[in-house]
Write a structure and sequence with these properties.
By secondary structure, the chain is mainly α. It has helices at residues 3-17, 32-47, 53-61, 66-73, 77-118. It has 5 helices and no strands.
């Protein structure tokens, strides 16, 4: 299983915890449905390759942010801590790898441009 698949599994685990009777008041949502729709929409974009959504979910996992507030209000705070720690590890790994690939691509473009200039 890839790191992105592991992250998606973590998000799905959190999403499954949010049911129609979930208390979301402290998280700033009017209803559980509102939060469910937001998670589902962002998750779908992530599954379709929009890696910017990693940052969106990272913000939800921050202390005193959405997922912590919901988990504490609904009795699964300890489980969320473990999920958040795993998310953070995978997030940092993916961001580091993405940064290295971006840096390599920039350097390769520069190198290719120099080659083109030499042979033109």
């Amino acid at each position: 299983m890839s790191d992105i698949e592991k992250i998606i599994d973590i998000i799905i685990t959190v999403r499954k915890k949010i049911k129609d009777d979930t208390d979301v008041v402290w998280a700033g949502y009017d209803s559980p449905t509102e939060l469910q729709v937001e998670i589902d929409s962002n998750l779908k974009e992530l599954q379709n390759g929009n890696l910017d959504k990693l940052d969106t979910f990272k913000n939800h996992f921050l202390p005193t942010a959405t997922f912590q507030e919901v988990s504490l209000s609904n009795g699964w705070g300890d489980e969320l801590i473990k999920l958040a720690e795993e998310y953070d590890k995978l997030y940092e790994k993916l961001k580091k790898n993405n940064s290295q690939h971006t840096t390599m691509a920039i350097h390769n473009k520069g190198f290719i441009a120099k080659l083109k200039n030499w042979f033109s």
